UniProtKB/TrEMBL annotation:
GO biological process, one term: glycolytic process
Protein name (database record): Fructose-bisphosphate aldolase
UniProt-listed InterPro entries: Aldolase_I_AS (IPR029768), Aldolase_TIM (IPR013785), FBA_I (IPR000741)
Gene: LOC101754815
Compartment(s): Plastid, Chloroplast
């Protein structure tokens, strides 16, 4: 009691001095410059984003790095040669009528400059199909010093020059994937680093005419429940939008590539598509401004059917944004297996790709049913510490 009195009398101003104390500590007005040169590409960015976010269409992610593409080819007994990568990518982009369901294709740098087997540029084939070519621009994940075994994403050095060249080559949008791990924290540092990197990348991309796909992937790894994913996702998107605002990113000229809000891959309790949709839409409403034209989900190791069902559940009512897909594994898995590197199987493999593309197109419109889906398409594809 005595010490409390001492504290009161010696450190705090008397009531009669409150006004003066407030005056002394009142913050001086801060001058903030809010005048920022708009991207010379502003109108084009909005148009590109809207084209990609068009009804019944989504993105085919085929931007596997050469190392990851090698793993895919190895799974069907093929060597990781440029010829094999070219054969597979040719199969994907020449699937007849692909543009009915696919509005954009994300390419790895090699593919942006690659020709199809028949000599036509892959970029030209995509454009003829009505598909906007995009490009993965990040340089992959490396350990984040000072964190809990987490990672950060490299690629900002020289990005402006690379993107200017990609634009010349025909790319009109970009992708940067960084990851957040729930079992490893995530630490405040890892989330801030992910958000800042994405925001710098987004600003640089808009400056060079490319619509940035902003992808802080919250990995499926872990035993946590859906509530924990929801909590982490809210934090990640709050930081990401704060950082993007600080970097003067034009929200109407970006696309997002979030993870759906699901339980961890090793959680005991699984979630129904309705629960995934409820949590994911709640997240989007809390964190994503309606000016963002498109939310293009990643599949992240879900089975082909699960990814489609979840998307369909999210499109049962009107949304302020185009809610769609940007899947790699959930579009390509059956296609790759059906092909198996055998030229005679190309048509069947293309049909498998078209089947998934059409199913997800229907899911974008909220009209998909899983009746008649093959058992293999229901098998999960989760891989621990997945790299791209
Ligand atoms: P998945 O759909 O296989 O998770 O791929 C996501 C991705 O980031 C590809 O661009």
């Amino acid at each position: 009691m005595a010490s409390a009195t001492l504290l009161k009398s010696s450190f705090l101003p008397k009531k009669s001095e409150w006004g003066a104390a407030r005056q002394l500590t009142a913050p001086r007005p801060v001058t903030v410059s809010v005048v920022v040169r708009a991207s010379a590409y502003a109108d084009e960015l909005v148009k590109t984003a809207k084209t990609i976010a068009s009804p019944g269409r989504g993105i085919l992610a085929m931007d596997e790095s050469n190392a990851t593409c090698g793993k895919r080819l190895a799974s069907i007994g093929l060597e990781n040669t440029e010829a094999n990568r070219q054969a597979y990518r040719t199969l994907l982009v020449t699937a007849p009528g692909l543009g009915n369901y696919i509005s954009g294709a994300i390419l790895f740098e090699e593919t942006l400059y690659q020709s199809a087997v028949d000599g036509r540029r892959i970029v030209d084939i995509l454009t003829e199909q009505g598909i906007v070519p995009g490009i993965k621009v990040d340089k992959g994940l490396v350990p984040l010093a000072g964190s809990n075994d987490e990672s950060w994403c490299q690629g900002l050095d020289g990005l402006a020059a690379r993107e200017a060249a990609y634009y010349q080559q025909g790319a009109r949008f970009a992708k940067w994937r960084t990851v957040v791990s729930i079992p490893n924290g995530p630490s405040e540092l890892a989330v801030k680093e992910a958000a800042w990197g994405l925001a710098r990348y987004a600003a640089i991309s808009q400056d060079n005419g490319l619509v940035p796909i902003v992808e802080p992937e919250i990995l499926l790894d872990g035993e946590h429940g859906i509530e924990r994913t929801f909590e982490v996702a809210q934090k990640v998107w709050a930081e990401t939008f704060y950082a993007m605002a600080e970097n003067n990113v034009m929200f109407e000229g970006i696309l997002l590539k979030p993870s759906m809000v699901t339980p961890g891959a090793e959680a005991k309790d699984r979630a129904t598509p309705e629960q995934v949709a409820e949590y994911t839409l709640k997240l989007l409403h809390r964190r994503i401004p309606p000016s963002v034209p498109g939310i293009m989900f990643l599949s992240g190791g879900q089975s082909e059917v699960e990814a489609t069902q979840n998307l369909n559940a999210m499109n049962q009512g009107p949304n302020p944004w185009h809610v769609s897909f940007s899947y790699a594994r959930a579009l390509q898995n059956t296609c790759l297996k059906t092909w198996g590197g055998v030229p005679e199987n190309v048509k069947a493999a293309q049909d498998a790709l078209l089947l998934r593309a059409k199913a997800n197109s229907l899911a974008q419109l909220g009209k998909y049913t899983s009746d008649g889906e093959a058992a293999e398409a229901k098998e999960g594809m989760f891989v621990k510490n997945y790299s791209y």
